[in-house]
Amino acid sequence: MTKIRITVNDREFIFESDSFSVSELLSRLNIPEEGIAVCVNGDIVRKRNFSDFVIKEGDKVDIITMVGGG
Amino acid sequence: MDNPLVIANREFSSRLLIGTGKFASSEILKSTLESSGAEIVTVAVRRVDITNKEEPILKAIDRKKYFLLPNTSGAKDAKEALKVAQIAREILETDWVKLEVTPDPRSLLPDPVETFLAAKMMIEDGFTVLPYMPADPVLAKKLEDLGCATVMPLGSPIGSNRGIRTEDAIRIIIENSNVPVVVDAGIGAPSHAAYAMEIGADAVLVNTCIATAKDPVLMAEAIKEAVIAGRKGFLSGIPSRSVYARASSPLKGQIF
Q1: Residues B12, B3: contact at Cβ < 8 Å?
Q2: Is B52 a residue whose pLDDT tops 90?
Q3: What pTM value is reported for the model?
Q4: Tens of pLDDT, residues B132-159
């Protein structure tokens, strides 16, 4: 297992994994895949690619949802 | 009888759009939406709070009953607004977006140049764009010509509750517009909503006035009725004004 250090919503996390997908990140953070979008280094990762898209050391991840707003 | 509100070929029976910010709880939001009779409901795009997971707002809003309109609030320029719209499209699977570009955090006034640029980029990217905009008739025409689905001029700054301070410009926008005019921002009382409708707005968007009222459910009902009353007033043809009196009782046959 290798350690990767990433930033999620401006917070630093270290995970142990050899191939760390968006789906795996969400499951480790206990965030359901419904009702969210994920950007890695500013680019949107399409939902259908969540399980294939591999997050790498130093990546900046944003997990985004809808909230109340006018 | 009144026609439905038609935005981008989609019919809506309610002329009241509701913003979902600042509600004390999901329960209050739910009952407020119910009493407002609104169909179009705006939501914002934000990062998930990883440490403190609240109930997601999408769970509080029944998407079979309400048409969700994501906004681009927080965007400071056209590029940011486009990104927010694309993220919202990914989450909600909707092409509709309420475009907001507000670079100045104090006034939250919409940036006309960046709003125009964002609308252009969004339309090219396949979005149905409803732009929040300064009450500027020239800009309104330009946004309409670009292909925006509505124009949404402000009555007064967001959350200010100061009512329709831009009346003259809004009247010109209404007169010239071929797309629905939705008065957005500043409506702080039922009378403001009624007034916007009386002068011919096609719809109004209200958030703060309802969400921060002591009784949001009752306020939503009051605004709903005000919108209906104002609309009926407009359709009935409000008579002209006069500086001098015009007697209501007959002048003929007076005793003295």
Answers
A1: no
A2: no
A3: 0.91
A4: 999 999 999 999 999 999 999 999 999 9
Chain B contact present for A66, CB below 8 A: yes
Question: What ipTM does the predicted assembly reach?
Answer: 0.91
B243 belongs to a structural domain: no
- B98 is a catalytic site residue: yes
B206 domain-assigned: yes
- Identify all chain A residues contacting B91, using CB atoms and an 8 Å cutoff: 35-37, 64-66
Give the list of residues 6+ apart from residue B79 with CB closer than 8 angstroms, or none: B121
How far does the CA of residue B46 sit from the closest CA of chain A (Å)? 6
- What is d(CA A24, CA A45) in angstroms, rounded to the nearest whole number? 14
Rounded distance between C-alpha atoms, residue A35 and residue A64, angstroms: 9
- Alpha-carbon distance values, B111 to B87, B127, B133, B138, B139 (Å): 21, 19, 8, 14, 11
Backbone angles phi, psi at B252, to 5 degrees: -80, 140
For chain B, how many structural domains are there in total?
1
| Distance in angstroms (rounded) separating the CA atoms of residues B70 and B34 | 19
What architecture is domain A3-65?
Roll (3.10)
- The pLDDT value given to residue B51: 79
Average pLDDT over residues B58-80: 93
